[in-house]
Amino acid sequence: MSMALSLLFPLLFLSLPLSQTQTPPKGFLIDCGAHSKAQFDDRAWLPDSAFISSGQPRNLTTPGLSPTLRTLRSFPRQVKKHCYKIPVYRGARYLVRSTYFYGGVNGADHPSPPVFDQILDGTLWTVVNTTEGYANGDSTFYEGVFLAQGKIMSFCIASNTYTDSDPFISALELLILGDSLYNTTDFTAFALALFARHSFGYSGPPIRYPDDGFDRIWEPFGLSNSTKASTENVSLSGFWNLPPAKIFETHIGSNQLESLELRWPTASLQSSKYYIALYFADDTAGSRTFNISVNGITYYHNLNVIPSGVVVFANQWPLSGPTTVTLTPAPSSSSGPLINAGEVFGVLPLGGRTTTGDVIALEKVKESLQNPPLDWNGDPCMPRQYSWTGITCSEGPRIRVVTLNLTSMDLSGSLSPFVANMTALANIWLGNNSLSGQIPDLSSLKNLETLFLQNNNLTGQIPANLIGKPGLIVRTSGNNFLSPPAP
After folding, report:
1. Fewer beta carbons below 10 Å: N end or C end of the chain?
2. How far is Cα 130 from Cα 140, in angstroms, rounded to an integer?
3. What is residue 7's predicted lDDT score, i.e. its pLDDT?
4. For residues 223-241, b (16+ Cβ closer than 10 Å) or e, as one string?
5. How many CA atoms within 13 Å lie on the side-chain side of 419?
């Protein structure tokens, strides 16, 4: 993607007090497919059965797996969406991480992992493709930052057109982040989807809890010009994102007055906007000042790296394809450039959510039905391609349910009176089922145009407000035991 200066967003530069914590991050660690609670690395992992009602637990026999990878939950691909429901604190910012290790669970006919989608609330987060990682014997994780907009957060596995065998998941984590982390993003409109997070010059195991108080994963990124950093006495008071001190123990760079060119991230980026944060700290004698450019566009001018540390970041920086970060010494600098760590997130526009009242009403309708559609999980309307079977929703910013069509779905049970709380309903089509009980009071449905209840086992009187209502078409004949309203 070509870029022009007029498209660039302003860079921000913060220095806020830091308060590191060594207590485990709060939230849920869910070991998918496990049958009991377990302790790994002094942290409690829960079985997933309390959070989801579909899918099958499976065990893997691959030797040498970490405990959370030894089990998984597998989902029938014929059902388009399966959702975990996790209680959260409304208004809190969560790190959500999903982990996948296939282990050949779908049998010899499917040696490669399936490709499928993952959804957070009503937002299509990303396509899950673990083929390359599995071929190398590795697990694959996806990480994002999302705002809890209600008291329940839904995480869904969904079959897309590429899905050729049953989707699965190995582990799911939801961890509360501090209020200062990534706080320049408007999380009511966007989420952050991690693309890369690296500790430069480091070649050990990934850095995470307890070094990172929020259990973010900082992967190693070592090159020939990696060196031990002179940051033994560095103060971390300049970092509002609360990075771990360990990322400042190494860097890429040198004392030579020459440019440093870094191809990072190593993978090509899809054309989109990205949140980029770069971390620097140094306490060597002299000055270390340089300019930063990304793909030839100035990112920050005359950055002075100081012992207390600095971070420079952009909220929505347009990128596409290969990315090169260049650090060029300023004329006043006595030492060459260096860099300690970096993060890149895709800025993900939220997909919207069904109006809460309609969601609650549909859950009550689901409870009153026997054999409801298997995909009635997660958000009813969003993403659009994964809306619930039989549900049609309105367009626009306020998403309402406008049609309930469960004709010939082999349903029994009753029609919940909560259906009347979906006040945008224009059509209710429930014909050719085995529903029993009475027709509830639907007088609140001012937009109702069609009510098709024929060929059920309904009893009682037809509500008077349904008779003769202008513009309303009502069908109740066939197998029902309904009587007209009393005069």
Report:
1. C
2. 6
3. 29
4. eebbeebbbeebebebbbb
5. 28
